[in-house]
Amino acid sequence: QVQLQESGPGLVKPSETLSLTCTVSGGSISSYYWSWIRQPPGKGLEWIGYIHYSGSTNYNSSLKSRVTISVDTSKNQFSLKLNSVTAADTAVYYCASTRYSGYDFDYWGQGTLVTVSS
Amino acid sequence: SYELTQPLSVSVALGQTAGITCGGNNIGSKNVHWYQQKPGRAPVLVIYRDTNRPSGIPERFSGSNSGNTATLTISRAQAGDEADYYCQVWDSSVVFGGGTKLTVL
Fold first, then answer.
1. Which residues contact A79 (CB under 8 A, 6 or more apart)?
2. How many other C-beta atoms lie within 10 A of the C-beta of residue B24?
3. Residues of B with CB below 8 A from A45's CB?
4. Which secondary structure element, helix H or strand E, spans residue B9, and what is its range?
5. pLDDT digits (tens, 9 = 90+) for B43-84
6. Which of A59, A54, A67 is nearest to A20 (CA)?
7. Is A39 helix (H, G, I), strand (E, B) or coil?
8. What pLDDT digit, counting tens, does each position of A17-66 carry?
9. Min CA distance, B94 vs chain A (Å)?
10. Burial grade of A34 (CB within 10 A; 0-12, 13-18, 19 or more)
11. CA distances to A45, B53, B77, B105 from B81, in Å
12. pLDDT per residue as tens digits for the range A99-109
């Protein structure tokens, strides 16, 4: 059973960089793509992007200019950096495993709320 | 970019059958996945690739997909099925529907 756990600061100042890490346990990091998804308070889900263990990435075009997703296979972790944040980036951020076969998300972290505020 | 349209809300009487639709251009040609999200919790995959249930998901949850509409059907609705439901596809990028709030009366 794959388990994912997000970690990182819960408060980020406007114009700074949001950084989160997802630690994967119970499964091989080579078995999936690994995604970040966010959900602003009271709103729907927005996919941010995914990474393959090889390092190849695919990002949501609306966020592509500000997003970097990286992977550390030695630690079974992958990370998100979102730069130049504004209040609109306030959201619960989830990491999730993404299956090759259909790009569905079968395992999710519990989510972490990141608030952008000075 | 590809868009998915869901009703904002659906109501169903306890024990009856609810259908939640997800509309998209020729969605029948795509794999549709469905997620259930309860307040304060992460989404849970309930249907993948149109009709498949992950392990642990009750048989009461089923899916179909044809033409321009995919449907999640919840039979014998229970109070515990009250949640937001999201459809999702891949179209050169991940696309989520806006979500439907299911109320069990």
1. A19, A20, A21, A22, A69, A70, A71, A72
2. 23
3. 35, 43, 86, 88, 96, 99
4. strand B9-12
5. 999 999 999 999 999 999 999 999 999 999 999 999 999 999
6. A67
7. strand
8. 999 999 999 988 888 899 999 999 999 999 999 999 999 999 999 999 99
9. 6
10. buried
11. 19, 15, 7, 11
12. 888 899 999 99
Cβ separation of B49 and A103 shorter than 8 Å? Answer: no
Residues of A whose CB is below 8 A from B99: 44-45
Question: Which positions in chain B touch A1 (Cβ < 8 Å)?
Answer: none
Q: Rounded to whole angstroms, how far apart are CA atoms A69 and A40?
A: 20
Tokens for A66, please give them: 């500000």
- Report yes or no: A35 at the B interface, CB cutoff 8 Å: yes
What tokens does B87 get?
A: 């459809």
Can you list the positions of beta strands (E) in chain A?
3-7, 11-12, 18-25, 33-39, 46-52, 57-59, 67-72, 77-82, 91-98, 105-108, 112-116
| Contact: B94, A61; criterion CB under 8 Å | no
Q: Does A8 touch chain B (CB under 8 A)?
A: no
